[in-house]
Write a structure and sequence with these properties.
The protein has 229 residues and is of the alpha/beta class. It is built from six helices and nine strands. Strands 1, 2, 3, 4, 5, 6, 7, 8 and 9 form a nine-stranded mixed sheet that branches.
Length: 229
Amino acid sequence: MKLLFGPQSAFLLALSALLSAAASAKGLPTITLASVEQQPYIGENLPDKGYVHEVVTEAFRRAGYEVLIKFYPLARAKHEAEAGVVDGWTPAYVDDEIKPRFIFSAPFPGDSIGLLKKKLLKVGYSYDPNKSVLEVLSSLAPYRFGVVREAHALPELDQSSLFEKDFAGSDLENLSKLGGDRIQFIAIDKYTAADLMVSKRPHLIGQLEFLSPPLRSNSFHIAGRQQQR
């Protein structure tokens, strides 16, 4: 069964609310989605698998579907969705690169992306809401940035040739690189960074700092593969 998200899919509007999930009813048609471990928003070991899992499964349940969410690295999650192995993936950002190939649900609350660095690294960084992301980051061009492959959390950074980028498969991998001084900055959600340090990299607590305010606040979506015509 292939999932199509259309403007008349009223249940998608429910995704803008924080819903407490209920168990899926038996005998319902099943939608399979790929997802990525993105703590504290969604993850196999989080209570009820996290807020995103609760919202998505409840929204589909109200529309008469059961949802099976499988966890993959981000690049594979997108590949599985595009190849039709699964019906879509979540949480997804809307970006110009994938718009032609996917249809997106209504938005629901997402993350706040900014830069994480070691406290010992002193840089001349100042945020100005009247400047573009690239203008704000221009003073950091001599440094190496850790970016999760195909995440597109900061598209301006991904697409710019001004910065040296080191691509990783996950935020956790980038944290390890930052701790080992292989990179100087990570583009990451502030709450994801805090959660990963507490649960997976406690030795980095107190060593790193998030540059405030965040550079971008993103909404989350479900991305469904466009039907071939």
